[in-house]
Amino acid sequence: MKMTHFTHTLKQGLFHCSRPLKAAISLSAIVLLAACSNNADSAANMNSDTNINNSASSNMAVATFAGGCFWCVEAEFEKLNGVSKVISGYSGGTIKHPNYKQVASGQTRHIEAVQVHYDPSVISYDALLFSFWRQINPTDNGGQFVDRGMQYKPVIFTHNSAQQSLAKKSRDALNNSGRYDSSIKTDITPFSVFYQAETYHQDYYKKNPIRYKFYRFNSGRDQYLEKTWGEDLKKKYMKNITVMHHKQAMNESPIRDSQPPVYSKPSDEIIKKKLTALQYHVTQDEGTERPFENKYWDNQEAGIYVDIVSGEPLFSSLHKYKSGTGWPSFYQTLKDSNIVIETDFKLIYPRSEVRSKHGDSHLGHMFKDGPEPTGLRYCINSASLRFIAKADLKKEGYEMYANLL
Fold it and tell me: What does pTM read for this prediction?
């Protein structure tokens, strides 16, 4: 593991591997950080022989995640309603009952992780995944933020086939969302073993709030998350998503009702990188493309149309018809909950603007001159859409719509 001399000095105080800072730190700050080193040395082997496997009380389930510094991951999961406790520790590795110094060296192949004990009747495993993705950089498997080395790489350790299936679907949906410039490299692997970390690491953010906040700010974690997620970082998990049944969370039973992916709007910076100038103008500035000179106005292939920004399903080829206007026209939506109708006063008379629910993209307008059975015409800009052919639905993660076409 590479470490600067200055970082090594700070490590003696924080007793947490590679914590380099971007700016010079005052002498008083270093003294403050060093205050915990004595406690760390004396506590180094107190709890390292505790091995927590796949255990949970009769009404609780266990999930195991690795997302870099376990101080930070533990703090975030403990905020969630339905989570009873979060334990910091080490997963995997080549030796039994490692201590922190051994793990931090990177030589034992353990990974800093947390075990989340939760009530599946209150919070679903999908909701835990929703939170996890908003805590990490899933495209970096060489560590997390300032902490470098495989002992800090992000991993989802699944305790059963139900968790594994949900984790893979969640990762695939996020990978296809366009939020990241590079592909997601977060591993999903079966859980094997977990060793509880030393006492001084448990609830570190509560016991040492000043030192914790000092480290967290300088780690770059929050700055990255705010830049990547924007306002979506504050978005709550959708409560209308079905909570996974307790037996699915605890056992190896198959999932009977798959849970839908969660769609959201990336930061403006990411949107600009992802979209063409026309696509950005239409979706973000409420622009309009030219009729008959756009991508899908005359497309007759079977498939669905999703938001170019968020990926949420919007329309189907089943409901597409030739309106003669030169824009893609549909007489009904594929999923009403993904559509928002607002009143637009940009012209002299009011119009019904069509926007996507989660991506908040301008799509077009709705008129009451369409065919039966709805009598509606959703006049949509091609630039706001991405077409997914029927043959590609499974590959793209939209297999639930294959039987509709």
Answer: 0.54
